[in-house]
Every structure is written in C-alpha cells, then in structure tokens.
Write a structure and sequence with these properties.
mainly alpha, 3 domains, Four Helix Bundle (Hemerythrin (Met), subunit A), 3 strands, elongated, 204 residues
C-alpha cells in the first residue's frame, strides 16, 4: 500500500511538524494524529505469519482443559491458536525510493548529458532532505554520508573522469540504508510478538 500525503515542499512539511509539536504541548492528541497523517510518504508491505511460538502454550492449555474434561473449551483454545495471524508491516520511505531512481537516471546520463545528470543528483539530495524532514530516521548519520557522496559525484561529473565506481558505491550505500530501515521496523515487530509469547508462557 502507498501512503503519500506529505507535501513536496520541505518548508510546508516543517510547518506541519511545528503544528504537531504545538498540538502535543496542548495535549490535543487527536489534532496531532490528524496532522501526522499529512506527514506520510511511504510504501508499506504487510506480511502475515503464523505465530508458531504461541502454539506450545495453546497445546499445553488445551491439554490441561482436556484433563479437566472441558472438551469444548480445549477445542476453542486450539481454534483460536490456529486462526491467529501476526501482521508485520514494513514501511519504506518514498523519498528514498525517489532518490534512488534519480541516481539511477543520473548514472544513465553521466556520459551524454552531464548537466542533466547533475540536476538529477540535486533531485536525489532534495529527496534525502525531504525524508529527513518527514522523520524517517532523521538522526541517522548516513544521510550526511550519502549527501557527501552526491556532492563528490557532482564535482567529478564536471571533469572527464570515469564516475562508474562512484555511482556504484553511492547506489550500494543507499540500498543498504533502505534495507536497514525496512528490516529494522520488521525486527522490532517480530521481537514484540516473541516477548508477548514469552509472557503467555509464564502466565500459563
């Protein structure tokens, strides 16, 4: 699913962010939530998994109920366990995907349209700034490293030097950054489910 409600203009994004801060200071959380909805620009992929870690708990509980001749309750416990799915959402910031696309296009034009390639790299840098403004791992130092790589590439494009290795390094770095953000969100959700299962085991 694509959620793209955020403005293109970074100043407009910052204005909404300031309004969110003001609403939170006033404890007006409904207003803050509504404003935050306008700061989304991401691709979400939902994966549904069977919560296998909960099955031993359900089997133990069902066995106990069977020993107590509570067959219907045991059946219900097993049915609930078998019908439960764990939904894991991975959110990938669209500005980072747009930056990657701009870099790919710049690479394709690096030898024939150097001015256009530099402009595309400007677009990539802007999308990185936009991702930061929208709060997608804003404090991650990788943003600065990526923008430094872009600046270096733009300088090299003004010469006749081969930029193939520089483009490859930039693309690899951005791909790793994208992967780290997505897998980070997924891992935290999986961990939360595991912790919940452990609590259920202790309760049993």
């Amino acid at each position: 699913m694509v959620f793209d409600t955020a403005p293109e203009d970074i100043d407009a994004i910052l204005e909404i962010a300031d309004a969110v801060d003001a609403a939170i200071l006033l404890d007006d959380y409904p207003a803050a939530r509504a404003l935050l909805y306008g700061l989304m620009s991401e691709l979400r992929v939902r994966t549904c998994n069977l919560p296998l870690a909960t099955y031993p708990v359900a089997l133990t509980e069902a066995a106990r109920l069977l020993d107590e001749k509570k067959n219907d309750e045991a059946r219900m416990v097993l049915m609930v366990a078998l019908s439960t799915l764990v939904a894991i959402d991975r959110a990938t910031p669209l500005p980072l995907l747009l930056a990657r696309e701009a870099i790919n296009e710049a690479e394709a034009q690096r030898n024939t349209e150097k001015d256009s390639a530099r402009e595309l790299l400007d677009t990539a840098r802007y999308e990185l700034d936009r991702a930061m403004a929208l709060g997608y791992a804003t404090q991650d130092p990788e943003y600065k490293a990526l923008k430094d790589e872009i600046s270096n590439l733009q300088k090299q494009l003004k010469t006749n030097e081969d930029t193939s290795s520089l483009f490859s390094r930039l693309k690899e770095r951005l791909s790793a950054f994208l992967k780290r953000q997505s897998t980070g969100k997924q891992s935290r959700q999986v961990e939360s489910q595991r912790q919940k299962s452990e609590r259920e085991k202790r309760a049993a």
